[in-house]
Amino acid sequence: MADNQTVQAYTDAWTQSIESISELLAPLPTDAWNRATECPGWSVRDVVSHIIGVESEMLGDPRPIHALPRDLRHVTDDFTRYMELPVDKRRCWTPVEITSELEYTVIRRSRALRNSRHQPEDLVRWPGGPLARDLPYAAVLRMRAFDVWVHEQDLRRALREPGNLDSPAAVLTRDLLIETLPKQVAKEAGAPIGSTVVFDVAGALPFQRTVRVGAHGRGSVDESVEPAPDVRLAMDWQTFVRLCCGRVRPETALVNVIGDQELGLRVLAHLASTP
Predict the structure, then answer these.
(1) Residues 186-221: pLDDT tens digits?
(2) What positions does the domain Mycothiol-dependent maleylpyruvate isomerase metal-binding occupy (predicted)?
(3) For residue 149, pLDDT beyond 70
(4) What is the CATH number of domain 170-269?
(5) What fold characterizes domain 4-163?
């Protein structure tokens, strides 16, 4: 169960990351706002607009009234349509207009977080259109810090400005993604009962974890390193994040697959756990 210190840690991680985005955007020339990111169909401008849209919704602001064009090929279902609306609404905005709204939104959200009277386990609404649901307050804060940091990295890769790879939100992201590994390996990739998969991640946040598939086909993860796993997947921290967040195709990711090649490639193909 989360406590108030955990809530504060999540809030601090979100704050550090979203303020870093503001600092990253401040000196950008106008043409840099149109650079493509690894989010399908989204430019730097679009990623920032998405962040503003979600944070505004967390504040209770009404959704914008806007008709989406019919030729957006990356809009494929109700969820992507829901997420696209506040993004497309801002596509004609100038960089000054977007950065000003981002700064104002951050000020408002920071004030709301400071003044919140929610307890960690209180249920609050997690926005997402067809995926919207009520979640504990602490879980919502954790997911917002995760989402903002992942998008910060989308922006940094597009702008070739690496940074914050070991920030508080990065550590939070690492722990959250590790929690998804048992499901992705055992259920999504269908790793056989009794198999073991070791993730050997180097770089800014190095770690090793072993996923084991138990007798009932359920996965578990622990910090002990299996000396002779069925497959070992060695990669750097950024590659791990990009795979888990669907930012890179498994066949083009820089991963060293040691052991059962078929199983290793199947796991890589099913690591993505974000919508």
Answers:
(1) 999 999 999 999 999 999 999 999 999 999 999 999
(2) 15-156
(3) yes
(4) 3.30.1050.10
(5) Four Helix Bundle (Hemerythrin (Met), subunit A) (1.20.120)
User: What would the DSSP string read from start to end of the chain?
Assistant: ---HHHHHHHHHHHHHHHHHHHHHHTT--GGGGG-B-SSTT-BHHHHHHHHHHHHHHHTTPPPPP-PPPS--TT--SHHHHHHHHHHHHTTT--HHHHHHHHHHHHHHHHHHHHH----TT-EEEEP-GGG-EEEEHHHHHHHHHHHHHHHHHHHHHHHT----TTSHHHHHHHHHHHHHHHIIIIIIS-PPTT-EEEEEEESSS-EEEEEEE-TTS-EEEESS--SS-SEEEEEEHHHHHHHHTT-S-GGGS--EEEE-HHHHHHHHHT-----
Q: Is 129 exposed, middle or buried (0-12, 13-18, 19+ CB in 10 A)?
A: middle
Q: pTM for the complete prediction?
A: 0.96
User: So what's the pLDDT on residue 14?
Assistant: 98
The stretch 83-109 carries a mean pLDDT of 96
